[in-house]
Amino acid sequence: MVSFFCKSSQCDHMRNQYEPGMSSGVCKGYSLRRGTGAVILGGTCIVPPIARNLETNGIKVCVLDSGICEARFSRYVSRFLKCPPVEDEEAYVSYLVKIAERKHLKGWVLFPSNDQYLRIVVRHGQLLSRYYVMTSPPWEIVSFLYDKRLTYSLAKETGIPFPETHRPENLNELLALEIDFPVILKPAVTYRLLSRTQNKAYCADNVQELQNLYRSMCRIIGPADILVQEFIPEGAGALYSFAGYFKDGCPVAGLSAKRLRQYPVKIGKLSTFVEVINNRELEELATRLLRPIGYTGLAEVEFMWNKKHARFELLEVNARFWAWHELAIAAGLDLPCIVFADALEKEIPFGSLHDDIKLTHLLTDIYVAIQEMCLGKLTARQYMASMFSKPVVAGFSLKDPLPFIAEAFFLVQRMLRKMASGRDDRILGKG
């Protein structure tokens, strides 16, 4: 059986309070006081599984998004409200305050679904906590995970290895670096690049590409936000995570996972095939990182196995729901319910836990598998073997099929737009 719960001596009080194997169904009818529900900020493809988990357990769900999105089609979303774009921070916060009274959402539990929503919620936490129940800690804690410069500083202080990383302040400092190619150029704050380019990072194979990418990224996010990092060549199969719900830096409920395939293939922004594994070291590393800041909330701590150094190295931390969170639900960890219950200071619900669970973002994974086969990294036999293991299909439910259909439509739409525009993933490097 995969170990899902903290076993370290520093977390004995939590181990004694929360025992694995507790009966499922504890959070049935979990509308803990009349009218209490969950407000989810954002309605992308990761949100319908959250809504299904909450609504199935008696928790009403309201989703806010500025446009047409997958969650809008879910039968488990009791209310959908169109809101201002998250980029207009002042208008967005004002809207949250206004609807708390007008839409009778005061006292509901607030769930940010991506980094932009997370930043707004925690930066305006003092105001929003008058109207909603918060699920994220204050900014002075979240900032350690939100900004990779602070994340790596924390890792250094706690003795957690991470890839060799540089922070050049200008082009001259960049060119003076003694580095081996290829290298990764990534933003300190992911969404600042992702929202403009649809990429989390770029890879430079030589000095010329490094200069071009650096200049282009400077025009988008500025030099202070650019990190130059060692490239670990092992690929998606060397990506690992420990993810779950933490209290005071200790995992109350969590699991270790291995990400076997990702999109894009070289530098992923979405894990397309993930499996539960049994790895105590990942839990210990995640706990060592989060305990000093007393972190309480959801977290996915990402690592990569560096074969050269024979160790796990920290990549980043997501302090909110991550793209493959549905794997945890399938394994028996009702994370949305756990977050909801703990936010209201009620008994945390657990279900029966299962190992040997896998998850695939099916449509994107098919595309990735074809790419990997063309590159000689995957055989058709290996791909079929992974699919015969009967993975959970992310986002799909026979009782709630429309969000999955909408996701497929949006995916094809994005691909057609990309083909029509002729945009290349390495467009920044050509300037």
Model regions low in confidence, pLDDT < 50 over at least 5 residues: 1-10, 13-33
General shape: globular
What is the helix tally? 16
Give the averaged pLDDT, no decimals.
90
Structural class: alpha/beta
Radius of gyration: 21 Å
Strand arrangement, major sheet: 13-12-9-10-11-14-15
In helices, the fraction of residues equals: 25-40%
Describe the 3D structure:
The protein starts with 11 loop residues before the first helix and ends in a 10-residue tail after the last helix. 36% of the residues lie in helices and 20% in strands. Strands 13-12-9-10-11-14-15 form a seven-stranded mixed sheet. Strand 12 and strand 13 form a beta hairpin. The protein is built from 16 helices and 15 strands. The N terminus is likely disordered. The protein is globular, with a radius of gyration of 21 Å.
Topology:
Elements: H1 12-17, E1 37-41, H2 47-56, E2 60-65, E3 79-82, H3 89-102, E4 109-112, H4 115-123, H5 125-128, H6 139-146, H7 148-158, E5 165-166, H8 171-175, E6 183-187, H9 190-197, E7 202-204, H10 207-221, E8 226-230, E9 239-247, E10 250-263, E11 270-277, H11 280-290, E12 297-306, E13 311-318, H12 326-330, H13 335-343, E14 358-360, H14 362-374, H15 380-388, E15 392-393, H16 402-421
Parallel strand pairs: 1-2, 1-4, 2-3, 14-15
Antiparallel strand pairs: 5-8, 6-7, 6-8, 9-10, 9-12, 10-11, 11-14, 12-13
